[in-house]
Amino acid sequence: MKGLGRSFESLIPTDLVDEEFDPTSLEDEKVSELLEIPLDKISRDKDQPRKNFEPEALEALASSIRFNGVLQPIVVVREDNRYQIVAGERRYRAAKLAGLKTIPAIVRTLAAQNRLELSVIENAQREDLNAIELATAYAKLKSQFNLSPKEIGDRIGKSEASVTNTMRLLNLPDSAKKAMIEHNLPEAVMRPLIVLPEDKIQKILPKIIEEAWTVKKVEDYLKAKKPQSSATAVKASLNYDREQVFAKKFHARQVKITSKSITITFKNNKELEQLLNKLDK
Questions:
Q1: Can you tell me the distance from the alpha carbon of 36 to that of 103, in angstroms, rounded to the nearest whole number?
Q2: Burial group, residue 71, by CB count within 10 angstroms (0-12, 13-18, 19+)
Q3: Is there a contact between 193 and 201 (Cβ–Cβ < 8 Å)?
Q4: How far is 72 from 54, CA to CA, in rounded Å?
């Protein structure tokens, strides 16, 4: 389960861009090729803003690469008979640590890289993109063009928080992403589900679709399902009994008791007058 205590950055899966949701995948195919390139033919970008790579994290990634291989290609541009890294220097360094001789790479010319970046930005500004396609466009700008959420926001006229929150939708399981597209579910309604395990998402998703739940309905449902401490549960049970007694005695539509207040719900002025008369007696 993904924890709320982690940073936004750690919740954004920007290493992987699913072609199924990528609005520029067809154009990318035209200007890119996937090659297995010798590591000694690759140079790091001297202007890469990230200079420090934690040795422990690199070694952990290297161990994963030794076992699973490089799961996501790096992105490079051609420079004469060599290649310069655009995105994926961490994977490149870890591959060297792992003892690999070659690495999978998406190869573009510099002109193609610039054209594709503009294309992704233009697509991200389209109003007809669904939230998952938009999140994928943002993730592509981050993972393949080394743009931060703030830089993405500056380019498309959105706040950094808006970009970050939209990208977090990519943490949803594929079934939820597809449901968002198929049923045109709003981003705000789906965002509370991001931190849930997949089995709980599958349980709540049909209700959201069939009953057209609002954000508040989703939040109230999750709050009600949240485990309570034994003391809280006892208190809630006691209050419930009191609420039923109170409602029956005064013929109230609904009564809610908290530690500091009693709330009585009535339908109209006639019910209010009847309630006030009973309280006066």
A1: 5
A2: exposed
A3: yes
A4: 20
Nearest-angstrom CA–CA distance, 114 and 9: 25
Decide if 120 contacts 7 (C-beta within 8 A): no
Contacts of 39 by beta carbon, 8 Å cutoff, 6+ apart: 92, 95, 96, 100, 101, 102, 103
Q: How many whole angstroms separate alpha carbon 16 and alpha carbon 144?
A: 10
pTM of the model: 0.66
Tokens for 194, please give them: 């991001």
Every domain of the chain and the residues it spans: 9-162, 172-225, 230-280
Question: Residue 41's pLDDT band (boundaries 50, 70, 90)?
Answer: very high
Neighbours of 87 (CB within 10 A): 25
Question: What pLDDT was estimated at residue 1?
Answer: 30
Question: For residue 17, which of 53, 86, 71, 89 has the smallest C-alpha distance?
Answer: 71
Rounded-to-integer distance, Cα 15 and Cα 88, Å: 9
Specify the CATH number for 9-162; select among 3.90.1530.10, 3.40.50.2300, 3.90.190.10, 3.40.50.720: 3.90.1530.10
Query: Of 82-86, 92-96, 239-243, where does mean pLDDT reach its minimum?
Result: 239-243
Task: Write down the H helix ranges in 2-130.
Answer: 25-31, 55-68, 89-97, 110-124
User: Can you give the length of the chain in residues?
Assistant: 281
Report the SS3 class of residue 148. Answer: coil
